[in-house]
Design goal:
The complex is a heterodimer of chains A (about 110) and B (about 180). Chain A has about 110 residues and is mainly alpha-helical. Chain A has one domain (about 25-110). In chain A, about 70% of the residues lie in helices and about 0% in strands. Chain A has five helices and no strands. In chain A, α1 runs antiparallel to α3 and α1 (about 15-40) packs parallel to α4. Chain B has one domain. Chain B has six helices and no strands. Chain B has helices at about 5-35, 40-80, 95-100, 100-115, 120-135, 145-175. In chain B, α2 (about 40-80) packs antiparallel against α5 (about 120-135).
C-alpha cells in the first residue's frame, strides 16, 4: 500500500490517548451527574453560572477532566507502544459508563439526600 | 411576521447548529468508512483526506457551538423560575411542563436526558477529528484505529440525535418564547 507515504506518527499511542481521554471525559460527566443528584452540597457547588444551574459546573469540570487526561496520557504514553485493542476497550467502557450516568432513569436512582 | 430574540436563539441552537451537525454526519461517516486502501487510489485518498479533515473539524466546532449556545443562552430561559404566585407559565417552559402530570415527563426524562447526554457529542466529535488530523492518510492502513474513530463518531451522532430529538419535541410542547 503506497497511499500512505506521509510523515504522520505510526505509533498508536496518540490515538489511544485521544480515545481514552474521550471516554474519561464522558465518564466524568456521567459521574458528576450522579453526584449532583445524590448530594445537595455538590449540586450547589456545581452552579458555576447560576442561570444554567449545576449543568454549567458538571460540563465545565467534565471538559477540564477530559482535556487534562488527554494531555497526561499523551505525555505518559509518548513514544511507547500500547495494546491498542485493550486500550480502546477501556475507552468504550468509559464512554458507556458516561452514557449510563447521564441517563435519567439511572441518575435519578440517586436523587434526594 | 415576527420572531423574538429567544425564538431566534432557539432556532440558531437547534436548527442551524444542531441540524447542521446531524446532516453532515452522513458525509463524515461515508468518508471514514470508505477510507480503505483497496477502495481508493493514492490520488483519491489525498483528495478526500483534506475534505475529511476540514469536515470533521467543522462538525466538532458546530457541536461545541450547539452545546454552548444551548447551555448558556437557551437553557437559562427554559429553566427560569416564575415569580411567586404566577399562574400564567407559558414564559417558563420548565415550570409549565412540571405543572401537569401529563407533561412532567417531558422535563423529568426528555430534558434531563437531553441537557446531559448532548455534551458527549462535542467531546466524541473532537476526539474523532483529532485522530483523523493526527493520522491522515495512514488511517487507511490502520483499520483498528479507523474503526475506533468511526464508533466515536457514531457516538457523537447518537448523543446529538437524542438531544436534538428531545429539543425539538419539548420546544413543541413548551416553547421558549
Amino acid at each position: 500500500m503506497n497511499a500512505t507515504q506521509d510523515t504522520k506518527p505510526q505509533s498508536l499511542a496518540p490515538a489511544a490517548a485521544a480515545l481514552v481521554a474521550g471516554g474519561i471525559g464522558a465518564m466524568a460527566l456521567g459521574l458528576l451527574t450522579v453526584l449532583a443528584e445524590a448530594s445537595t452540597p455538590i449540586n450547589d457547588a456545581l452552579k458555576f453560572y447560576a442561570p444554567a444551574g449545576p449543568l454549567s459546573g458538571k460540563t465545565t469540570v467534565a471538559a477540564i477532566v477530559w482535556l487534562a487526561s488527554w494531555g497526561i496520557l499523551r505525555t505518559v504514553w509518548n513514544k511507547k507502544e500500547v495494546d491498542f485493542r485493550k486500550v480502546t476497550t477501556v475507552a468504550f467502557i468509559l464512554l458507556a459508563l458516561g452514557l449510563i450516568g447521564t441517563f435519567p432513569p439511572f441518575f435519578l436512582l440517586f436523587a434526594g439526600e | 411576521m415576527e420572531i423574538s430574540n429567544r425564538e431566534l436563539w432557539t432556532v440558531i441552537h437547534g436548527m442551524a447548529f444542531g441540524a447542521l451537525f446531524l446532516l453532515a454526519f452522513g458525509g463524515g461517516l461515508a468518508g471514514l468508512y470508505s477510507l480503505r486502501p483497496a477502495w481508493v487510489t493514492q490520488e483519491g485518498l489525498r483528495e478526500r483526506m483534506l475534505r475529511l479533515k476540514v469536515g470533521m473539524w467543522l462538525m466538532a466546532l458546530v457541536a461545541w457551538a450547539t452545546v454552548l449556545s444551548g447551555t448558556y443562552i437557551v437553557y437559562p430561559w427554559y429553566r427560569a423560575a416564575p415569580p411567586d404566585g404566577t399562574t400564567e407559565l407559558s414564559a417558563y417552559p420548565r415550570s409549565q411542563l412540571l405543572s401537569s402530570e401529563s407533561t412532567a415527563l417531558w422535563h423529568e426524562f426528555g430534558m434531563e436526558w437531553k441537557e446531559h447526554v448532548g455534551w458527549i457529542a462535542p467531546i466524541a466529535a473532537t476526539v474523532a477529528a483529532a485522530v483523523v488530523m493526527m493520522y491522515g492518510e495512514r488511517l487507511a492502513s490502520l483499520p483498528t484505529v479507523r474503526r475506533a474513530v468511526i464508533w466515536f463518531f457514531v457516538a457523537a451522532f447518537a448523543t446529538a440525535g437524542v438531544a436534538g430529538l428531545f429539543g425539538a419535541l419539548i420546544n413543541k410542547v413548551a416553547p421558549v418564547r
